[in-house]
Amino acid sequence: MALMITDECINCDVCEPECPNGAITQGDEIYVIDPSLCTECVGHYDEPQCVSVCPVDCCILDPSQVESKEELQAKYEALQAKG
User: Which UniProt keywords apply (predicted)?
Assistant: First the structure.
């Protein structure tokens, strides 16, 4: 699954620079995660970095973006190929 940021986000700015895929950006009111870029840090780290740094635990699995670890790995490899 890709991750999403809930409306509990306090705009603390710690997640955006931690995302190795550039999937996190400032939205209209809170930060947002682009599911086409989110690999849950598969290929980079053992755990999603936004989840590990979020002080309010608002980075959660997005139930509308179900992906297996294999699919996340394939997305990571495709993103790396695009450079």
Answer: 4Fe-4S, Electron transport, Iron, Iron-sulfur, Metal-binding, Transport
Torsion over CA: 3, 60, 6, 42 (sign):
negative
Q: Tokens in use for 14?
A: 């710690």
- What is the phi/psi pair of residue 21, to 5°? -100, 0
Q: Which domain holds residue 15?
A: 3-82
* pLDDT tens sequence across 22-51: 999 999 999 999 999 999 999 999 999 999
User: CATH number for the domain including 67?
Assistant: 3.30.70.20
Report the C-alpha gap between 39 and 34 in whole angstroms.
Answer: 10
Q: What is the pLDDT of residues 8-24, one digit of tens each?
A: 999 999 999 999 999 99
Token pair 């890709």 in the structure block, residue: 2
